[in-house]
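@channel sequence for tomorrow's demo:
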Amino acid sequence: MRSAFENEIGSHRWQRVPPTEKRGRVHTSTITVALIEIDNYKEIEIPAYEYRVETTRGTGNGGQHKNSTDSCVIMTHYHTGIKVVRDGRSQLSNREDAYKELKKRLNEFYRTGHLNKEADTRREQIGDGTRSDKRRTYREKDGLVIDHITNKQASFKDILKGKIELLK
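structure tokens (generated this afternoon):
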């Protein structure tokens, strides 16, 4: 499907004379088209060898039980340095909560990095979006569509009917 839209990437210029224009001046608008593949991001599972678990004595409210048992859990991911601390009464529930939070933060970390790559790809495809940086011109007044890359022209009506192959 990507090859069908490959030639659409870039700036498209639309020239028209609005019905309210009394002197016949041509108004020009620009639209940019980018082709971005759909991200099929899957949440990751964290293997046990990628993070470290430490237990310490709890602090704060909770009485003698919390202060005398190693119920506080600290999980640290080796590669990213993301650290999660859970300090409740039960070490078992703290481990589960810390793992869930670490997994959530790691997935957000990796997803954000992927979105930055997508933004760079988009910026690269559309350029600066100025009228001079154009891919095609749609001239409504003359009924023409001009492709500036292939130097071909086609009827405006044919293009609206979906015969885009006339410009290839």
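heads up for whoever presents: The chain has a mean pLDDT of 82.
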